[in-house]
Amino acid sequence: MQKEISEIRNEIATLTKGIKARLEYEKSFGITAIKRTEQTTTKQEEEKTTPTTAIKENKQSDIELLSSLKENALKCTLCGLHQTRTNVVFGEGNPNADLMFVGEAPGYYEDVKGLPFVGKAGELLTKIINAIDFKREDIYIANILKCRPPENRNPKPDEIAFCYPYLEKQIDLIKPKIICALGTFAAQSLLNTTESIGRLRGKFHDYHGTKLIATYHPAYLLRNPEEKRKTWEDVQKVRDYLKSF
Ligand code: URA
Ligand code: URA
């Protein structure tokens, strides 16, 4: 019993340290209040917040903030994954991208190279991107977790909680016109829901005023090639939406 209590005490100490580090870090971005996430948005609100300009050039300061966010992420020790990672996989691509893909977490090759989607699933993602007439350099690719979970196990809730603010800030600074969430973890985390990917995919959702579409994860499609057609249809919607500008 004594031991259990001391273990709990240690856990609380670790969490408190993490939260303090997080708040210090947020403060370095001038953030002094915590934003509550909206659960629901009406269709009217969604339409109101839809961007209508065709050309987007992010301010130089946003691009610089993205670089300094990356520097911070590369040093991150907020969760236990820093102990087993080879490299932090912050994300890569065009900081002015109109289209942003969000996956789950780095795998073996991503951890080795420090880049997202460079393994087998990445090859399929590149094909998906090319299929809608984009090049990887045009878009931005990131993950929910920036560090590889050992043996590619599922992300743990505390890991997502610590890591998620990096992604939120990436999205804030890149300001894509549309986000494509790849697989269960990305879709559920970004949409703050426990709904299944099968139900979430193929429809437009709202992420704080930005369009979001969810589709199957390329790794899932490698195991279930008969589902590729659905993802093909989902990304056509992304292409059509971006063409409408
Ligand atoms: N799977 C992901 O979710 N992300 C990667 O970067 C690679 C594989
Ligand atoms: N399970 C996942 O994690 N992702 C998918 O895309 C489908 C099933």
Please, could you describe this protein's structure?
There is one protein chain. This protein has 245 residues and is an alpha/beta fold. The chain has 10 helices and 6 strands, in the order αααββααβαβααββαα. The protein has a single domain, classed as Uracil-DNA glycosylase-like domain (Uracil-DNA Glycosylase, subunit E, 3-Layer(aba) Sandwich), CATH 3.40.470. It is 49% helix and 11% strand. The chain has a 6-stranded mixed β-sheet with strand order 1-3-2-4-6-5, sandwiched between helices. The longest helix is centred in the N-terminal third of the chain and has 26 residues. The radius of gyration is 18 Å and the shape is globular.
- Give the ordered list of helices and strands: HHHEEHHEHEHHEEHH
Helicity range: 40-55%
- How many strand elements? 6
Q: What is the CATH topology assignment? A: Uracil-DNA Glycosylase, subunit E
- Order of strands, main sheet, comes to 1-3-2-4-6-5
Query: Which structural category fits the helices and strands?
Result: alpha/beta
Domain module tally: 1
Portion in strands: 5-15%
Number of helices: 10
Q: Which whole number gives the mean pLDDT?
A: 89
Radius of gyration: 18 Å
Bound molecules: uracil
So, CATH architecture? 3-Layer(aba) Sandwich
Q: How many angstroms does the end-to-end distance come to?
A: 63 Å
Produce the secondary structure layout.
Blueprint: H1 2-27, H2 43-49, H3 60-74, E1 92-93, E2 99-103, H4 108-113, H5 120-131, E3 140-143, H6 157-174, E4 178-182, H7 183-191, H8 197-200, E5 204-207, E6 210-215, H9 218-223, H10 228-243
Helix pairs in contact: 3-6
The structure holds uracil (2 copies).
One uracil (URA) binds at residues 183-184, 197, 216-217, 220.
